[in-house]
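Suppose a colleague, Dr. K., hands you the sequence of a protein chain of 285 amino acids and asks what its three-dimensional shape might be. Before reaching for any lab equipment, you can write down a predicted structure in token form. Begin with the sequence itself:
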Amino acid sequence: MKPKKIGIICKEKVDKSIRKEILLVESFFRDAAIQIEEKIKSRLDLKKFDTIKRERKYDLLVVFGGDGTLLRTLQCMKHFDVPILGVNAGNLGFLSELEVKKMELALESIRQNRFKIDERMTLEIEIKRKKESIKKLKALNEIVVNQISIARLMKLKVLSNAKHIGNYRADGFIVSTPTGATAYSLAAGGPLVHPGMPAFILSPICPHTLTQRPLIVPAEEKISILFPEESEEKVSLTVDGQIYFSLKKEDKINVKKSKKKLKLLRLPGSSYFKTLRKKLGWGMI
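The predicted structure, expressed as tokens, is then:
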């Protein structure tokens, strides 16, 4: 159905050209929509961050910024019912793939109801300390476990449905969704995985042995990360590159597929493989 109420989200600091496009969205839907602009802070405080007001009342959220702005928007959402159109005002723009110069054509497609909704798997993360749950988080791309201080190998143990996968000695460890396969996981040597496939990508960062390669496991599994008792490293958890949390060696990280999926609005001509070719040069000769 055609959107009747639109929320406009932008990062704190945007240049004049982006403000011009924001005004274009407002004027384009003025006859059928009530526009409410929300500001997403450049950094999120783990202890307190604002949720998007009246989220369920929107038919569409238009997010101006880079992929980081879209990932911060995810952290501010509760219900995930509303689709998101990401407009690239950043650098890579893999999630926010719509270029600003094509904004007017995109708006016309939306008004004519010519679009599709692409649902993306998200993660639920729970940190347990001495069997007590101390923090619950969510992610679209990945979680990253690594050392806080000096550059040396850390030790960790990884399980799937309480079954031992292996012990790792590496600079860190990534648990990624297929959406996050083109982010940090790719830089760590992980595979490309189509976002329509429900799976976890487990990627050690600079592992010490040649046998410890990235592993793909079904999304129905529950992934757990633990640290050996003799471990002396100070370790942290980073969620989608947006939220940081300090860990203790007795902590256990549980990761599972969330029941909630992020809805990305895709316009005619949009394609995952087209984006791979354009943004990453994949398959180009």
